[in-house]
Write the structure tokens for this entry.
Amino acid sequence: MMYKILFLCLPLIFIFFPGEEMKPFKLKGLAQGTDYTIMYYAKDSVATKSGIDSLLAIIDQSMSLYRKGSLINQFNAAEKQIKTDRFLNDVLKRSFEINADTRGIFDITVAPLVQAWGFGPKATTTEPGETEIKSILKCVGMQNLELKKGIIRKTKPGIQIDLNGIAQGYSVDLIADYLTKKGIKSYVAELGGEIRIAGPKPDGTPMKIGIEGPDEHDEPAIRHIAVLNQGAITTSGNYRKFHQSGKKRIAHLINAQTGYPLENEMISVTVYAADAITADGYDNALMGMHLNEALKFVEVRKNLEAYFVYHRKDGSIADTLSTGFRKILKN
């Protein structure tokens, strides 16, 4: 098990070279239970750590389950509805779109199941039984939510939402917006492994992102180098967050349709899309599919590409890429 955790702990690695015309600047900090790293080129340090921290704090007030009094916690505690802010409204709108496109695989009403399996804000030491899961499933399903004119409403009592599968990608997009408004045209912004890129670098060369995968001996190695000037790359996997129950590993990604943690061949999915909210939302959905289904899903959708790491039937680790993902790789 330790091999699998180490193998994918850092799936995305920056490869960044100083430009000749502008100076490189680097910002690092902690936010949303993880860390962030921002590298950008400018004549002066126009983007600041305090500016990024303030932005992420505002986002937390809207969508963090760990922030007391946040809008998302207000909604989860509400009997029927609340008025959203622009952050919550943006993420909810995109969540509905991805939910419909994935036929319910991506579902933000999974919150009570996430909590029951011990991955929510409240500590728990027991696994839910079949009866409890069946009871919780009665309060799961985005068909029980309505978003209209800035109001998010429950059409059924007990519905609660968890935006952890998409909000971090959205946060990276907001960081990108912040940098752009500062006049910055070349940057790599990363938050918790979710990345947004803009380029080229001042010397005219594209940005490069290293992507880890298994070599011929199933050892971790940089398998691919993505070369691009625009877009987002995010990763979802079952290798970081899990519980051990005897010899069984319980993954943190929960199937909203069955109520149980995902059990398929997927280890991780890395998605490339135009923006991070899209990549982040779809990487979770693709983790919930079988490999062939996920590959077909990506191949028929424009501006959505993916890199998959998975278990073969014999237990060995392998990887594969969608056709479009291959096109952004360095030959």
